[in-house]
Biotin sulfoxide reductase (Tistrella mobilis), 801 residues
Amino acid sequence: MSDRSIEPGATGTHPTRWLMTHYGPYQAGLDAAGRPQLAPDPADPAPTPLGLALAEVDHRLRIRRPAARSTWLAAVEAGRDPEGTGRGEAPFVELPWDEALDLAAAELARIHRDHGPTAIYGGSYGWGSAGWFHRARAQLHRLLAAAGGFTMGVGTYSHGAAERMIPHVLGLDFAAAGAAAPDWDEIAATTDILLSFGGIPLRNTQLDWGGIPGHRVGAALERALDRGLDMVTVAPMADDAAAAGRARWLRIRPGTDVALILALLHVLVSEGLIDRPALDRLTHGWPVLEAHILGRDGTPPKTPAWAAGITGIADAAITALARRLAGRRAVIAMAWGVQRHQNGEMAVWAAHALAAALGQIGLPGGGVGIGYGAGGGFGLPQTGRRPGLIGALPNPNGMEVPVSRFADILLAPGATIDHDGRRITAPDIRLVWWAGGNPFHHHQDLNRLIRAWAVPRTIIVQDMVWTQAARRADLVLPATGPLERADIAGGLQGPTIIAADALVPPVAEARDDHAILAAIADRLGCRSAFDDGLDAEAWLARLWDRARSGTDDLPDLAGLRAAGRIDPPPLPDAVRTRAGRLARFRADPAADPLPTPSGRIELASDRIAAMGLPGHPCWQPPAEWAGSDLTARFPLHLLSPQPATRLHGQLDHAAPSLAAKHDGRERVMLHPEDAAARGIADGDCVMIWNDRGACLAAARLSTDIMPGVAALPTGAWYDPSPTLKDAAGRPVCRHGNPNLLTRDAGSSPIAQAPAAQTCLVDIRRVDPATAAAERPSPYEGPMFADRDTVTTASPDTGPAA
């Protein structure tokens, strides 16, 4: 068992400087022909090859010049209100920068004037750059706020349910709770048992948002296991430790984790194994939850036998696991995928309840962590330092909606959305502006998104490459990548901070996001509000000064650039307040209470009950799971985990991702029993379908997944077939994008977060002739037309003949 890695120096380059990426630090240089080359950090114990593809800056998918959809441009030039028809079909017309910037500024001003600020949606959901300044989302949101306001998506597709649930339970925000969780050094040294819901897949630890100092999770887990850590993985798929035989694997039906946790609590309560003094001192609402567990509230007792029928785990195994937990230093870990189910908030709440009942919260090497194995940064020791990221501007005239309800607001303006105790009225969106990111990767139910994408009058996308979002936009602005601009990065997930100058000039006519948006701010007369009139160099100096504030051990910007990379030591313990937050609460709850209504860990919540929801952790059967009637038509539960060979959809066209595909398609993992029942062999082309859509994939047979479950990694670029249709006449994705199949429905009224893992499908073998005729072709740019083919005389129906 080890992290995926490559040998340092594998590129054969002669590095000249450092570059921080989401995949960790690399040394960057130019080869003899002047082409960028990257090499991993020689000190990284398990460097990943994924970031090496960033060196291919001049890829054929790069957006080289500003471009407008021909039919949209014709409507604008004719003075008509443009329409969304023709997106993804009509050709593009390349434009000079000044004209493109004029069009963008004029359209933003027009929508503000005619429809108000909430009619503008500032997208840009996605990881983008690892830098402090060149953060596409932050830059765009600053412009839209400075220009008068906009509708903003809040929350994440990654851990949206946990983001909203943890403040109800601990009073801490998601990041603060993660910082207060036991770090990997503590786990390696002191933890007796690690109970992991969803597992700790090391493929995810190859990267983290903003960059990581090195890949050390695998080594820390090995140290813990070598010391005798008792690790239990509860998941439908085996993680690395379970696959290597170093963890016990309990196969659980997807989406049923809460039922298992309640049964574990039933055993602990019934056998007198809970830490009642800790519950009395540190928690609020335990008697309410205990009554529910024991069935004293009119519901069935949550016995192991009750849970066995839901989870598929034998009642004796549940009882044995509860006894193994009792009286030991325990960490309850939960992968983000577990809370990406319908009612995923309850799983997060239940995990905290289990840790509290065991008396573990606030102890060294004990407690709960929502995100171990979700990224390479979660669980790294805290440094006490804060990076100088460029921040947001106030948006008083705008509004906020849950980010995963994007299609909802486009399709049903005026409808209401309940969100964490407030009721939102969906705005009437006329302009969508996306800078970085690709909703055709991360949003659920792509056929529904396609309908929603046709609603706005104008869609502007600024990006590096021709993603499906860019190909379906009206105005496209080419942006630079990390090797084409100077920035500071790091310090988010560990001590390493890197200052990198541009290694190569921008490709073709690409500009960095700040330069694009500053030029538009100039046209709108809001430049001062947008960036104080400062250029990128002045902003880097400002951000570094902020990061140095209050310390005396960091060099000035010139010194940082001269060094290229610094790894400053952690600040003194007195300053590292976040890591010890729960320990201080445990030591003296009266003197250092949590910022919850009770000042303690809330195991029952009047606030949540007031939303018309259960006021304590409880099992709620989801719409799609192994126990639902829908299994008569769709008997397989589809999971869409993160891939091992790319970051979400980023670099799907690069060598590591391509090498993992079969005949150019994403591979879907199936248990051999499910494959045999359908006449499917390893490598066969298969169709995966349900009522929402269909896609093709290549079968991969494995006993590392339980029967009745399939897993298709997320991130394969959407590639609609022009000829193959599903039962409803919609294009089948030839490449294997699971979001043709996932549900676009909120987790619950608490978070309204994605619930992509609540998804039933069926799978069948595709005959070889059809498979051969439907070769994937996901990495194609759009068609272009000459400017003189654009007509202004006819409606927005396509280019002139």
About this structure: Residues 629-773 form a domain with the Barwin-like endoglucanases fold (CATH 2.40.40.20).
